[in-house]
Amino acid sequence: LSEITTQLGGKVSIHDYLKTRLLSENDVLIYDHGTQEIADFVGIKETNSEILIRLYHCKGSENVNPGSRVKDMYEVINQGIKSMNWLISTDNFIEKVEKRTSGNNMNKYLKGDKNLLETKLQYNIFKEIKFEICLVQPGLSLTSLRNNNALPINAAADFFKSNNNILFKLFCSI
Fold first, then answer.
1. Taking a C-beta distance cutoff of 8 angstroms, is the pair 86, 164 a contact?
2. pLDDT category of residue 148 using cuts at 50, 70 and 90
3. Torsion-angle region of residue 6: left (phi > 0), alpha (psi -120 to 50) or beta?
């Protein structure tokens, strides 16, 4: 399951769906899907009190029926854990983004650009910067996770929170 059903009943890939949704929700949006990625999508949103950096990791499932399969959980959780390396500090994050978006990779910015990113993160000393890891797995079912075993997801949430106070969200099927 690597696509979702739209409200009109059609199918769309997870990446296409997220791209459309995230373009309207973020000031800066980077698509970094690939080897050594930061995340599939990196979104930066400024509010009145904070700057929120969200890393979105998307994974498909081998099974078309959403459930609570451990394999589906582990694949997307592992991506989230790996990306924590880039969230040690704002400077570390900016350095990684610069490496991933320089040279032939400049078209990774779907919204905003390097200058806007630097303005929001380096020159905005009066707002708290928060990190959030978002795991996107339509092969997981919220109902099954509630009824069965969500231990790996709960452990991941606790791990992110206890390491650099990283926020956590899970996007899955109902």
1. no
2. low
3. beta
Residues 6 or more apart from 152 whose CB is under 8 A from it? 70, 73, 74, 77
Give all strands (DSSP E) within the chain, no chain letters.
3-5, 11-13, 28-31, 41-46, 50-58, 109-111, 128-141, 167-173
Residue 29 contacts by C-beta under 8 Å, 6 or more apart in sequence?
19, 22, 23, 41, 42, 43, 44, 109, 110, 111, 112
112 pLDDT above the threshold of 60: yes
CA torsion 18→19→21→25, rounded to 10°? 120
Closest residue by Cα to residue 16 from 90, 95, 110:
110
Residues 170/133, Cβ–Cβ less than 8 Å: no
Q: pTM of whole model > 0.90? A: no
Q: In one letter, which amino acid is 28?
A: V
Give me the pLDDT at residue 74, please: 84
